[in-house]
Design brief:
alpha/beta, Rossmann fold, 17 helices, binds S-adenosylmethionine
């Protein structure tokens, strides 16, 4: 239970909608009960994958071979995804205690193989004390160009890396990185340098999407960045890559998103005109409805009228949800577009985009300065979620997103 407690403390929330089983199986003790039929099915499906890995290991060792063949990759991938589909079907038809037992059985069979890979073990063990620390994310980004054929790793470790790389949510994060980089890049490219564009990155981690578009030239006098994260190591990491010509004007706020408004205003030390762009790539799906609504309320309040707010949230369509729930104990709150829209205070326009597999939603909100907003912090929860609101569906059409940018910039005299 200790892990779960740390998770909740760090994210500052109770993920009411989170579906993953509590990590009760971290110590399995006492006499083993006879497995139920669903658990037997789980053990069979997981056992097929473990068996395939064992056979490959036995064949490769005497040949001193560490690089998997294409056929071995395909065999292991088939067995893995067959097992995952089986887990999903079982997860749908059994109650929660049985889900927890089945998930524990899957881990018991597969972890001895999967956790030999740094990617699987880091995601499961959570060395910063919670899921999705910035180092884990940095490794995920690094995987995009990694063929998982390291001759200094055993063949089964290369295969486990290869499986991790095939997980839909991992791929969706690569897409998310580009999506935000494009958003930030477009804002920088169209700024006419009358004043720097002000960007706030909440739960920034290493802010890879910003790093992708910032260099001495793009950053030169054009941008004023604020990063917020409760992990000082993440902020130190950003300092390590930030171009020297923006470092001096950059604000680093070490704290929780819960306190973002106070932290921003304290640092501004005077009237604050609002950010042109407020982003949070990877926070919303760790928050239950109340905390997530508070987050969106604060984000829209910190943006200037006509500014933009962007957040992402994994959706129920994420085909790798069971991998995270069962094998990694990486709980999230999966939301449909309607549920994400309901988090946004009414009066603002919102459009949605998705990762190519459909499992990760990106919401882009155009902030309406005259939107009726709650007056006090404590009022945010009472925002009517059912009131009709104007909607601009921006969709995945890049041209329309650009159009929104230009209009917003013209209005603000940027
Ligand atoms: C999964 S990482 C995302 C990093 C980065 N935004 C990205 O997309 O690569 C999530 C980040 O949220 C931070 N975090 C955890 N709890 C938080 C909280 N209550 N408020 C703000 N950030 C939080 C973590 O320290 C971590 O750096």
């Amino acid at each position: 239970m200790a892990w779960r407690r740390i998770d909740v403390e760090l994210w500052g929330c109770n993920p009411e909608g989170a579906t993953a089983a509590a990590p009760a199986d971290r110590k399995v003790s006492g006499p083993r009960a006879r497995p139920s039929p669903p658990e037997m099915c789980v053990r069979l499906a997981a056992g097929r994958l473990a068996g395939a890995l064992r056979m490959i290991d036995l064949r490769a060792r005497p040949a001193e071979r560490t690089i998997p063949t294409a056929e071995e990759c395909a065999t292991v991938s088939r067995a893995f995804w067959h097992a995952v589909r089986e887990f999903e079907a079982i997860d749908r038809r059994v109650d929660r205690p049985e889900q927890a037992r089945c998930a524990a059985a899957a881990r018991e069979v597969l972890h001895p193989w999967l956790l030999r890979s740094d990617h699987w073990s880091r995601s499961y063990l959570k060395p910063h004390g919670y899921a999705g620390d910035f180092r884990t994310l940095e490794r995920i980004y690094g995987l995009e160009r990694d063929p998982c054929c390291d001759p200094t790793k055993p063949v089964v470790v290369n295969l486990a890396d290869h499986l991790y790389r095939s997980v839909h949510s991992v791929r969706a994060m690569w897409h998310r990185r580009r999506w935000y980089a494009q958003l930030v890049g477009e804002l920088l490219a169209t700024s006419n340098a009358r004043r720097p564009v002000r960007i706030l990155d909440l739960a920034s981690g290493g802010s890879r999407h910003t790093r992708d578009v910032l260099n001495d030239e793009t950053a030169d006098g054009r941008v004023e960045l604020t990063f917020l994260d409760p992990d000082p190591a993440a902020l130190a990491f950003i300092r390590s890559w930030l171009p020297s010509n923006v470092r001096a004007g950059t604000r680093f706020l070490c704290g929780s998103a819960r306190d973002v408004r106070k932290l921003v205003l304290d640092h501004a030390g005077g009237p604050f005109p609002g950010f042109d762009l407020v982003i949070s790539t990877d926070l919303c799906h760790y928050l239950g409805p109340l905390a997530a609504r508070k987050l969106l309320f604060e984000m829209t309040r910190l943006a200037r009228p006509g500014g933009l707010v962007a957040v992402s949230n994994f959706a129920p369509e994420d085909e790798s949800r069971i991998v995270k729930d069962w094998l990694l104990q990486w709980p999230m709150v999966y939301r449909q577009t309607s549920a994400v829209r309901d988090l946004i205070p009414h009066g603002h326009s919102v459009g949605f985009d998705r990762s190519p597999d459909g499992g990760l939603l990106h919401a882009l909100v155009s902030v309406n300065g005259s939107a009726s907003a709650p007056r006090r912090d404590s009022d945010w929860a009472s925002v009517s979620q059912h009131a009709p609101r104007p909607l601009t569906i921006i969709n995945s059409d890049r041209e329309r997103i650009r159009h929104t940018w230009r209009r917003s910039q013209k209005e603000s005299g940027l």
